[in-house]
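Q: Give me the 3D complex with threonylcarbamoyladenylate.
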Amino acid sequence: MSGTPRRCLELQNSSTHIAKAVEILCEGGLVALPSETVYGLGADATSEVAVRKIFAAKQRPAGHPLIIHVADIETARTFSNDFNEVAETLGSTFWPGPLTLLVKRSTKVIDEITGGRETVALRVPAHKTFRTVLTAFSQNGSGAIAAPSANLYGSVSPTTAQHVLSDMGNLIDAVLDGGHCVVGIESTIVDCTVDPPVILRQGAVTLELINAALKPIGVAAAEEFNGDSRAPGMKISHYAPRAVVKLFENMESLSTYAKQCDVSAIPYVSITGNADRDLYARELYSLIRDADGLHPQEILVLLPESIDIGVAIRDRLFKAAAPH
Ligand code: TXA
Ligand code: MG
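A: Here is the predicted complex, encoded as structure tokens.
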């Protein structure tokens, strides 16, 4: 990437435009793709040159590993030399869907993807447009798409094509518009290489759902890894807007705080949590981006209850609220 501004193609959800997206991938270019979780910045996962472009565009430190997206579990198996029972169970239960599995890599996986690690993260996405791209890319190219979230390193993930354009419009070749992401937060990541398996990142596939699928082995609850080598890039103070994020457990404490603020001196906006946690997750990043766009000093946020996807929402909000 030269870094010089250039025109990003805005592709719509039509067969001609999807074909164009696949053509760009085949040529080693960067295409932002809609997934059910967040928009991904896609490139051919088997091309060193293409994968390096992802790091340059995102300004992501080299060595932070990427997720490989494939069309089905059969293809996923070929990227691992130990796609074990846990991976088989979770893959066959939750794929296509918002779950990423960490497994031992096979020789097919290039070092640029894993940052030299012996493990690789694999996901079969559910979004119809992403799946159409993957099927066509399997016929005309490698069928493996490396895709981190399509935002600049450390900032809020994009859930619309507009979010991608405003962050990276001059840094990528195209964005394929597949509408607003329905889940709205990044996939759950499960490390299948350890016993018992461990959730490295919470998401829509919850601890309860994974435990039910993995009976009697079970899964360990997510831990805070503080950006160490277990899951680089998940450090505290990620997913952060410019404004300071202040979190509240209930409306009373939020209101009390808001009343104390001198609005004329300290501009702030508030996002109030919705009892519908799925909707809250879907809208979370749009709300944070919209709030941040008003250039407040503070964004006041009502936390959702720690139930189902509420656990993952709280995780992202605590990271957004960490000092940065
Ligand atoms: O929902 C999602 O997962 C989205 C969509 C586009 O699929 N992707 C996404 O990618 O969130 P990214 O790169 O923003 O986050 C992936 C996380 C990173 O924190 C990375 O460190 C971790 O997965 N990861 C990937 N490969 C890994 C590996 N081999 N070992 C440990 N962590 C890994
Ligand atoms: Mg990300």
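A quick observation: Confidence is low (pLDDT under 50) at residues 225-229.
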